[in-house]
Write a structure and sequence with these properties.
197 residues, alpha/beta, 6 helices, globular
């Protein structure tokens, strides 16, 4: 019995060390993501985090892409209402903006985005979302569109501290996102293995 308890304790400790190592690598990646200024066919922004939509419109107005896809917009929200909610939003080409209203989570974002990029023959996109959300959202979109070129464009918010060890809420948010990323990555990794066999 003592040996079993000892084995369980060692196993749990090893899993924790493995998780902590992965979390530290994940944190280093998301905080050091470099922004590429290359123009893409489309800008894709996933709603849900502060400053995301404003940043996407700033990029769109700088001609960083010819198409803007906003995924996860509430059913009754119109372009005018978006502009009211975000005073910085001004657009010179509203006909090239797609409001996706079907997605309720990141997985559904990927499906919704996939439909629009196929309809519009998009081969490259700039993914605009919160910096901690980049790895998981990119993985989801690539799983449905393996040949698409994705340039990441992380968005930062003063509400999420880089020093998560000093801010419990920020730690919970980033750690939760890491756990979700591990699940998504593992899921698609296993899918690829089964498809090959």
């Amino acid at each position: 019995m003592k040996r079993l308890k000892f084995f369980l304790l060692i196993s749990l400790f090893s899993l924790f060390i493995l998780w902590l190592g992965g979390f530290i690598i994940f944190d280093a990646f998301i905080r050091n993501s470099q922004i590429n200024t290359k123009k893409t066919d489309a800008i894709v922004v996933l709603t849900g985090g502060k400053n995301r939509i404003t940043e996407a419109f700033n990029l769109f107005n700088k001609d960083m892409a010819d198409l803007l896809i906003i995924s996860g917009v509430a059913d009754k929200v119109t372009m005018k209402e978006l502009q009211k909610q975000n005073n910085a939003i001004i657009t010179k080409n509203p006909n090239k903006i797609i409001l996706g209203k079907e997605a309720k989570n990141t997985y559904q974002n990927a499906i919704e985005v996939s439909e629009h990029i196929r309809r519009n023959n998009v081969r490259s996109l700039r993914l605009v979302t919160s910096y901690y959300h980049i790895p998981r959202s990119k993985e989801e979109i690539l799983a449905h569109n393996p040949d698409i070129e994705i340039i990441i464009h992380p968005v930062f918010s003063q509400n999420v501290s880089f020093k998560w060890w000093k801010n419990f809420n920020s730690f919970i948010l980033v750690a939760s996102e890491f756990n979700k990323f591990v699940f998504v990555y593992s899921k698609y990794f296993l899918v690829q293995i089964f498809e090959r066999n």
